[in-house]
Design a protein that fits this description.
With 522 residues, the chain is of the alpha+beta class. The chain contains 15 helices and 22 strands. The strands form 6 sheets. Strands 18-17-22-21-20-19 form a 6-stranded antiparallel β-sheet, with no helix packed on it. α7 crosses α12, α13 packs antiparallel against α14 and α14 runs parallel beside α15. The longest helix is centred in the middle third of the chain and has 18 residues. It is elongated, with a radius of gyration of 36 Å.
């Protein structure tokens, strides 16, 4: 077995920084506090003299620009759960770990770390070093710093992470590495700290040099069991974390945001967490919505959330792709009020099996690129503003197509009665059960057919037209009182320009008799 221990020693600070509006927003010193005193402070605040245990007023007197954030235990627990769900993409065996984070003034253990058993995943990710590098890179993208220790046992990996980042030991050097650790890292040693200090037991090696029976009688058997688990002498059963069926995460912003574009930095961290959860479940999303929560206006009344909806052309869990679409959405969004928090929920997911890399482009690569372009245009302009031409089951050229939104159902037939057979009927595309015309069609039709004259028994349009092909008879429209009875021809003028013209048959009035130009060939 091979374990990674992840200790988030500045969890409260990292949770608060996740709501920063951008990298420059982290410049101000930050401290975590309760109602009365400072619980933890970042390096910038400590450089100004702010330290844990200091009263809030004293900290603000030392650093007037200090940003104070109250600790939120529920938010920290939810953050650890979301990090565990994100880590499931690397291994299915993830366990939560509780301990006393640095800077905490009380003695209540809180979830502040993860333990990952990664032995089955090493070959897939290219070894322990490659997996560790990918893990660190992902944590940096999420905005979290962690001390990571690696060892053959879970307890030893956790002790290594608590002591120093990057500490590791293999089977041969495990016992020597554990013995050299400070005894204060052991959770069971903290109630007996004064006693151990009195007998000068500073390291775990000092504890192992004492008689086991006397140490167990004085400090409790649990202390020896903790050491034995770290050395691999006792088994350590653990409860594995299970990814929730529904994804939901939320970020409190450090300051109220008035411009939509400034939400992208914090929203990207939400999308990274979602991508990890989707990868762990081998799923993807087709659409999602980011909720921008506004401040209360008066009393208990609060503005409705601004919804930032994203719809993809095909299911995906790529955070870069999701972020690009959200950027387009934010660019055209105006916030009705300042935003204080972002929330991302995902209820519906689709299965997305893994794909293998290919040396040459796949046949559908061009279609995929077009789909990506369409989804970005929809995010910027709106889903109803990106349209396409769709075929309609009608022989008449001017009504054989319609303009609809790209997301509308394909191949929707007309609601009119079935046209019935035509003598020589055709449309821009063949219809099921209808005879296919052999004559070509122009790509563009005129908005309205233009009546042309006739000279010496020949149609005239800027010059005499020569009929090259035809006639092709189209009859239809009796079901909606728009009957057409036409003979279509392909004609050429003296400049060798090709036109699509027709002559009305059995026209009821003189205005519809004669020749008309309906289209032009390129």
């Amino acid at each position: 077995m091979w374990w990674f221990g992840l200790f988030f020693d500045r969890l409260s600070l990292d949770v608060a920084r996740c709501g920063a509006g951008g990298p420059g927003d982290d410049a101000r010193p930050l401290a975590i506090c309760d109602r009365l005193r400072v619980l933890d402070a970042d390096d910038g605040a400590r450089a100004l003299g702010v330290a844990p245990g200091m009263k809030r007023a004293a900290a603000l007197a030392l650093a007037p620009a200090l940003r104070l954030c109250e600790r939120d235990d529920a938010n920290e627990q939810a953050t650890i759960d979301s990090l565990a769900a994100w880590a499931l993409q690397f291994t299915p065996t993830v366990s939560l770990q509780s301990d006393l984070p640095f800077g905490q003034l009380d003695d209540t253990p809180r979830p502040c770390g993860l333990l990952l058993e990664v032995a089955p995943s090493l070959r897939y990710f290219g070894g322990s070093a490659a997996l560790l590098a990918q893990l660190r890179q992902g944590l940096r993208a999420l905005g979290f710093a962690a001390r990571i220790g690696t060892a053959p046992t879970a307890a030893a990996a956790w002790l290594f992470a608590r002591h120093r980042d990057g500490l590791h030991a293999d089977e041969a050097g495990l016992e020597a590495a554990v013995r050299s650790l400070p005894a204060a890292l052991l959770a069971r040693s903290r109630p007996q700290r004064e006693t151990l200090d009195a007998i000068d037991a500073r390291r775990i090696d000092d504890l192992l040099a004492l008689p086991r029976a006397g140490l167990a009688r004085r400090c409790g058997r649990a202390l020896l069991d903790e050491i034995d688990r770290a050395l691999g002498r006792q088994p350590e059963p653990r409860r594995w974390f299970e990814a929730p069926e529904r994804f939901e995460t939320r970020i409190e912003l450090l300051a109220q945001v008035e411009h939509a574009e400034a939400l992208l930095f914090a929203a990207r961290r939400l999308l990274d967490r979602l991508a990890g959860w989707l990868a762990a479940r081998h799923c993807a999303v087709r659409e999602l919505t980011v909720h921008a929560e506004h401040d209360r206006r008066s009393g208990r009344e609060r503005r409705a959330d601004t919804l930032l909806a994203i719809r993809l052309a095909d299911p995906s869990r790529d955070p870069d792709r999701l972020c690009a679409l959200l950027r387009e959405k934010l660019a055209v969004t105006r916030l009705p009020a300042p935003v204080r928090a972002l929330r991302l929920c995902c209820d519906e997911v689709l299965a997305l099996p893994g794909t293998s890399d290919q040396l040459f482009p796949a046949p559908g690569a061009a279609r995929e690129s077009l789909a990506r372009l369409i989804e970005r245009l929809q995010a910027r302009l709106g889903p109803r503003q990106v349209q396409r031409l769709a075929l309609v089951a009608d022989h008449r050229p001017e009504v054989a197509y319609r303009i609809e939104a790209v997301d509308a159902p394909l191949a929707a037939p007309a609601s009119a009665p079935r046209p019935g057979p035509a003598r020589r009927s055709g449309s821009p595309a063949p219809l099921a059960g209808a005879p296919v015309a052999n004559l070509p069609r122009p790509l563009w039709l005129l908005r309205e057919p233009i009546a042309i004259s006739e000279r010496n028994n020949r149609p005239w349009w800027h010059s005499a037209l020569t009929l090259l092909a035809g006639p092709e008879r189209i009859e239809g429209g009796w079901w909606d009182a728009s009957l057409v009875q036409r003979d279509y021809f392909i004609a050429e003028d003296e400049g060798h320009v090709l036109y699509w013209i027709y002559r009305e048959r059995l026209a009821p009035d003189d205005a519809r008799r004669g020749w008309f130009v309906h289209g032009r060939f390129g």
